Amino acid sequence: MADTIPLGRTDRFLLKLESADTPAHTASLSTFKLPAGAHPGFIRDLVQELSEQAVTAPPFNYVLAQKGDTAWTVLPPEDIDLDYHVRHSALPWPGGERELGSLISRLHARPLDFNRPLWELNVIEGLENGRFATYLKMHHALADGAAVIGILTDSLSTNSDEPPKAPWARSFATTLREERESIQPPEQPAAQSLLQALGKVATSVRTRPASGFVGPFVAPKSVFNTKITGARRYATQQIELQRLKAIGAREKVSVNDAFLAILSSALRRYLQEIDELPDRPLVAAVPAATLRETQDGLGNSVTVIYASLATNLEDPVERMHVISESMRQGKQFISELNQQQIAILNGLVLLPAAFLNTIGGGTPSRPIVNVTISNVQGPRHTLWFGQAECEALYPCSMIVQAQALNITARGYRDHINLGIVGARDSLPSIQRLAVYTLEALEEIEQRLGL
Amino acid sequence: MADTIPLGRTDRFLLKLESADTPAHTASLSTFKLPAGAHPGFIRDLVQELSEQAVTAPPFNYVLAQKGDTAWTVLPPEDIDLDYHVRHSALPWPGGERELGSLISRLHARPLDFNRPLWELNVIEGLENGRFATYLKMHHALADGAAVIGILTDSLSTNSDEPPKAPWARSFATTLREERESIQPPEQPAAQSLLQALGKVATSVRTRPASGFVGPFVAPKSVFNTKITGARRYATQQIELQRLKAIGAREKVSVNDAFLAILSSALRRYLQEIDELPDRPLVAAVPAATLRETQDGLGNSVTVIYASLATNLEDPVERMHVISESMRQGKQFISELNQQQIAILNGLVLLPAAFLNTIGGGTPSRPIVNVTISNVQGPRHTLWFGQAECEALYPCSMIVQAQALNITARGYRDHINLGIVGARDSLPSIQRLAVYTLEALEEIEQRLGL
């Protein structure tokens, strides 16, 4: 009899989110340098080499009997059509950021095939300056965005002497569930207790001092909180960590506060240009790992902090300080909540999507949050894929109904790598956000004389 | 108020066939020679040039409000996101038939976005020997396979001096509906009269002499008549028309008979190799235009001829004569039917798909037909896409539940171009069919001393 693995509540919910308009997968885009003197068939040989490594590592061998299933079946390697999952692609000339973004947008829009294990790896040749890329896509019910990058980095090596190793053939180090389980969707059967707990959170929010603190439900209406369709736009950007550190040190704010400040500038300019900047400040959901007491003692826990992006203010330095204070108060607020309240606060991010995808109805008149902005640390040392040096690791997150934009960043070596995912029909030219982010960094450096 | 166009019965039926496992679009793949001295940005400029030609020609500007809609809305050009529909793709090195087939398989498996007009054009660079390709995909409810090729050839020019013209910007010459309307699905509301008419056809079939004549419902069970999933395999082949003519002239059979004979050899060998050759001969549905009396006088009409492929016989020449006789009797049989009976005979090809997709249930225990093989004449003169010479036009047809294989051929200049579409999970390595077709041609030439 085949091995089966029951689906958790979050996984079942993520399968319910799956639709043609909201395919519920996340991905990781990585770029690599071709080794010196690589022959034209280098990528073809690499794809071949990967296709010969049998699928032995979970969850690459998990399959659903049907979409509504409540358990994964574990497939033996010979039942997995690896030539289907491992795909060789190419960029048209000149193979720049524009061509790469365009291909990733299309790949990210395409739903996974539910007749098979829910993942695909594209190996993409033709990047300018002697480079190639990989795009690893997995269903969110198998692994969250952080886990996809974790799986990928685990399969890379810290030295260039090892042969390239397929993520599905490796020994299993990454925890797939830890972060995801902490961001749980609202539990539908227990609507009563959900409402009670929501009430507690709402009361806590109302009784906070007004100075800079924001909670859920105070976000203004925005172009980001609309119904979305299936097509995507994708853009990337790299930011030198040292430049954010210099700003933080000068102004006594964290690197993440500086990061949020330049994104705030970019979002503000983008919204101004399409004449959609709300009067009230945008609110971002910022997932953050915090040290806190758990049942088992002290542990790492992921919470969502609701932060004002202060987009009502013009001055970027003033804005950064308001953001920083808002983050501080958000952390303070969370430290006073019990585990149940935190779980509910975290789950609120998915509430509109839950209603729109599984219950139906229009977009909520009151956004719970405007945009999700996530920034996770990553490996500081150089990683290798065989003899190919990894240049960058970009996240490529899921967006859901009523949340048309997701900005996720991941550290690698001395850079922060941004992956910006937007709904094509709601958000024109989101590539501009990537450009404006760097311009905002320069602007704030100039203001501070750095 | 927006213009609307009601959907015909066939179009509504084709929308019902749409599912993740059976996306109901057809396509045309064309290959072109790059003009001498084309610079590396030639394709990029071509895509740009096409993207600047507004969508004015129906049905490129038709959209459904929702999938179950019964009318198209006609969109003004400014409401169509042409950068979405026109896509620039590339083949990995070395850009051979294998890489092209692999990309087309993936493109053909991907459903169209029902939020937009149901078509996409991919312009594909990187074919070996200084060539590029286009892949035009349209939903079957907008245009059938023959119409897609017709639309494409209409947009090409007979001389190389004209600038490249987008199919959606041209004056409208091709009839989109003529052929399709003649192959109508069984009408569901009038089940009673359908059954009566079916009875008539069945009686006609039973009362025919047994010598070579086959009708529907006599096909053996085969690996082609299974449930299919969404992934596809695609292969192409070119056959010199002159070689088929020589065989036909020598043996007093038609070019199409010779064509069916070599496909029969290829199918026979393929099935033998996977140990799936039925004892009884395979039956092919062969759409054919015939001259016949219509209500308005004599006219062109498309019918489906049911032909034995004589795959029970080993000798290719003997097999060709049985096929030829079966085709002759099939034509004779159809000439004796009235219009209603012909419509029903034609519609039978879609009956299992209709039941499986719209009514549900398993695959029929008795296949109505094993495989569809279509061969349509095409332009004899050279066509140009701007300064790029068109080398070949391949069809890329739809497959449906219980019909996992479709072989469609189109004439262009002095060649017949085959497009073979199969369900990936049902049919391994269908590229072999393309190879075996040419080997079968050589075999029969040797037998005849040609």
What does this structure look like?
The structure is a homodimer. Helices cover about 35% and strands about 25% of the residues of chain A. Chain A has about 450 residues and is of the alpha+beta class. Chain A folds into two domains: about 5-180, Chloramphenicol Acetyltransferase; about 180-380 and about 400-450, 2-Layer Sandwich (Chloramphenicol Acetyltransferase). In chain A, the strands form three sheets. A six-stranded mixed sheet of chain A has the order 5-6-7-2-13-12, sandwiched between helices. A six-stranded mixed sheet of chain A has the order 8-15-14-11-9-10. A three-stranded antiparallel sheet of chain A has the order 1-4-3, with no helix packed on it. In chain A, strand 14 and strand 15 (about 415-425) form a beta hairpin. The interface between A and B is medium-sized, with 32 and 32 residues.
